[in-house]
Every structure is written in C-alpha cells, then in structure tokens.
Amino acid sequence: MAHHPNALLGSLFITILIACGAKLYASAKTFTIVNECKETIWPGITHSENFSGSGFTLKQGQSTVYTAPADWNGRIWARTGCSFDQNGNGKCQTGSCGTTINCTGPGSPPASIAEFTLGQEIDYYDVSLVDGFNLPVIVKPTNNGKGNCSTAGCDRDLRQSCPSELAAKAEGKVIACRSACNVFNTDEYCCRGTFGNPQTCLPTNYSRSFKQACPAAYSFAYDDRTSIITCSGADFIVTFCASR
Questions:
Q1: Cα angle, residue 57 at apex, residues 55 and 62 outer, rounded to 5°
Q2: Is residue 2 assigned to a domain?
Q3: Structure confidence by residue, pLDDT tens digits, 228-242
Q4: Which of 30, 114, 154, 200 is 20 to 30 A removed from 225 (C-alpha atoms)?
Q5: Where in the sequence is the domain holding 108, given as residue range(s)?
Q6: 12 Ramachandran zone, left/alpha/beta (phi>0; psi -120 to 50)
Q7: How far does Cα 77 stand from its chain's mean position?
Q8: Quick one: which of 93, 84, 132 has its CA closest to 111?
Q9: What is the rounded CA–CA span in Å between residue 231 and residue 233?
Q10: Cα 38 to Cα 75: distance, rounded to the nearest angstrom
Q11: CATH code for the domain of 221
Q12: What is the percent of the chain with per-residue pLDDT over 90, rounded to a whole number?
C-alpha cells in the first residue's frame, strides 16, 4: 500500500522535532543551588568571559535550579551580609559583584567560588579558595556521570581558624578569611611576575593551611593536579554549608 505524502512529511517532522528536542535537552546543564547555612545568602552566577550574570536571594533551607548551556564556563558563589532595596540595588559584606542583586562583575574577594568549564564531551569543575573564603561550599555531580565525578569543595568553616592577619571582620565578627595575595599583594603570594608559572608558584604556609583543612578545594593558582575534577554526562548540586 502506498503512503500518502502528507503522512510521510508529518512523520518526518515529528522525528526531527524529537531529535532536536533530545539534542536541546542534552545540551543543557542544570545546577541545583542549595542553602544549608543558618543565614540568608545571595548566590551570584557569572560567565567567565563577560561576567554578566544573575543573582538572587536564597533563605536558609531553600534551593533553586539554574540552567546553563552545555558549553558554559562560569562561577557560582554566595554573597553574604547583603542589603538590597525594592529595586534590587544595594551592597554585600562579602562576594559583592556590583551594586545590584544581578551580578555585573566576577565577585569581589574574599569568596569561596565554584568554577565550571563545561564541554560536549567532558566537564571540569573545582572549588577555589584562591580568592579567600567566606562560606563552606561543595559541588556534587548527579545523574550517574562518567569519569572521576568526585565531590569538590570545602565543608570546613575556615572563618573559625582564620589567621588574624587574614581575617575580614564586621562588627567584631570574622565574616571571611582573605587570601594572602589579597592581604599582602606580593608577587610570591599572587603568583605573578617571576612567580607566574608552575615551577616558581609554590604553596605557601597560608595556602597549605587551606589545603590541609580542605583537601578537595583549590588552594593556590597552580594547585591543578589535585583540585580540578572531571566528569561527563552529569548535572551538579552546589551546596553551601553542607558536609561532604
């Protein structure tokens, strides 16, 4: 029996829609951002190249889902001690990324930052303390991803053990732990100039203390071998103030 041309076209159209839908679904990554802290936080999300992004309020116990393209490169972190008016204008004590709730910058140190470089075949991710520490944060892949796919991050509150010379305070309380680069601004601590390569940029006493407390986090600029994790086919959960 001959098939009607319209029926064949209809079947082809449906097949194309299904294929495109599957490709679109596969090309998106979801990040579930969870606040298990005993305080409200204001997560910031920016693209690594232009730093335009988004931001929102997340109260204790709340979570939200952020969807990004499969080739997205960016960072997620928490701002703390923020005050925004009804128009979304304001400021934060740590992690500030502009003067609005939606981020227009990369996030000012000190801040604990989850970093992602996504690709069609493999994703790279880490939690960086290179810019200092403001809250514990861990990253877990989901959906049975393939590869290393281990948990990255720092579940210790480094504010409690922060050296006095690195402590950032507000109203007498330690609200963050700054990096040695941020405090002393030397080539050695900032891994620049003659210290700007893996052979000369070495761990310092400060970065070693961060690494000892948080071995699954990135503690200095060339800490790549132990701190960047790979995974493919996974989405991610980014949790603030959770245990590993």
A1: 120
A2: no
A3: 899 999 999 999 998
A4: 30
A5: 30-240
A6: alpha
A7: 5
A8: 132
A9: 7
A10: 23
A11: 2.60.110.10
A12: 75
